[in-house]
Amino acid sequence: MLDFDKIFTNYNINDFNENLLTWFNREKRDLPWRHAKNPYRVWVSEVMLQQTRVDTVIPYFNRFMERFPTIEDLAAAESDEVVKYWEGLGYYSRVRNLHEAVQEVVATYDGIVPEEKEKFEKLKGVGPYTTGAVLSIAYNQPEPAVDGNVMRVMSRQFGIYEDIALPKTRKVFDQVIRRLMDPNHASDFNEGVMELGATVCTPKNPMCSLCPVQDDCYAYAHHVQDELPVKTKKGASRVEMYDALYCEKEGKIAFIQRPDNGLLAGMWQYPLTERGTGEQLNGTYMGQVKHVFSHIIWYIDLYQVETLPEEEYVWFTPTEREEKTVSVAQQKLERLAGVEGETI
Ligand code: ADE
Questions:
Q1: Domain 238-343 belongs to what topology?
Q2: pLDDT tens for each residue of 176-233
Q3: Separation of CA 207 and ligand 1 centre (Å)
Q4: Cβ of residue 58 lying under 6 Å from some atom of ligand 1
Q5: For residue 39, how far is its CA from the centre of ligand 1 (angstroms)?
Q6: Residue to mutate (ligand 1; options 27, 45, 143, 199; most atoms within 8 A of CB)
Q7: Does the C-beta of 138 come closer than 6 Å to ligand 1?
Q8: pLDDT mean across residues, the chain
Q9: Is the CB of 247 inside a 6 Å radius of any atom of ligand 1?
Q10: Average pLDDT of 324-337?
């Protein structure tokens, strides 16, 4: 177990807070969720930002807020439409859980995002990161919000060599933040550390000369920025090979819907069979698509066919297809087939 007293010996906590907050207020990026800040907008942005880069999130966030400006608007919407506004962001269980959670907030808490930790953390899909991020950024409560950026900054600042790939390591950084954070400025503290990790204390080639907390940084003093954080490689991804069938009849294209749970639940796609398991293919090869998920890699060969195996299909015109939610892998197949679908 890390010796917290030791790492804070001779460490100037006040200096860290002052330098960080001054820098953040001067340098923070102009991001849409930093305008018209309210707990609902903070919550949506933090869910989108988990696993997805800021640049990718910005247009999604703006479209989402235009369509669902209040928590009541989101709660009242049909699930299919909500998922459609997430199309392309991946990790779709995030948006299904968020939708269920805001419905509970409207039904149970009169549409007010609860600021009591015991209530907020019980909502669907809400884990320790979302709890800390929303309670601190929206309500200025002194809660840690530890994501990858925060672990990188802190591991370098204090010379912490715990493996950040292990789930239990987050708790170590929770403790560090609880000792370090100025409790009166929790919102700017957490966003400031995230911002520092995103813009200065980057994974590769950190810009230490621009860093406001360089003076007390262990990694800088010991020239070990490239060694920290320690992150063991995750296990190799599983490779899955599929054949997809593109079949057009009288202006309509054959689709199937994925099962209600599991990967890409409920999304629409061309008929897909695991390679080697379907009937002998009799079609024209159109090319291959590669799609990388967090633990799986798909290689999909696309064939244009005249007839399909005996199964249930739904036939969509291009306009009907546009209303459906499809995965990024399916969008890649459509590009290959030359029938690009519209996203919102
Ligand atoms: N990453 C996660 N949350 C963020 C935020 N509020 N601002 C910038 N980057 C973030």
A1: Nucleoside Triphosphate Pyrophosphohydrolase (3.90.79)
A2: 999 999 999 999 999 999 999 999 999 999 999 999 999 999 999 999 999 999 999 8
A3: 19
A4: no
A5: 14
A6: 45
A7: no
A8: 94
A9: no
A10: 94
82-89: long-range contacts (C-beta < 8 A, 24 or more apart)?
Answer: 83/266, 83/325, 84/323, 84/325, 84/344, 85/60, 85/344, 86/60, 87/325, 87/326, 87/343, 87/344, 88/60, 88/328, 88/331, 88/343, 89/48, 89/52, 89/56, 89/57, 89/60
Q: pLDDT tens, 35-93? A: 999 999 999 999 999 989 999 999 999 999 999 999 999 999 999 999 999 999 988 99
| Comma-separated ranges of CATH 3.90.79.10 domains in the chain | 238-343
From 268, 259, 270, 279, select the one nearest 302 (Cα to Cα).
270
Render pLDDT for 238-297 as a digit per residue (tens, 0 to 9): 999 999 999 999 999 999 999 988 899 999 999 998 887 766 778 899 999 999 998 899
Select from 1.10.340.30, 3.30.530.20, 3.40.950.10, 3.40.50.2000 the CATH code of 4-222. 1.10.340.30
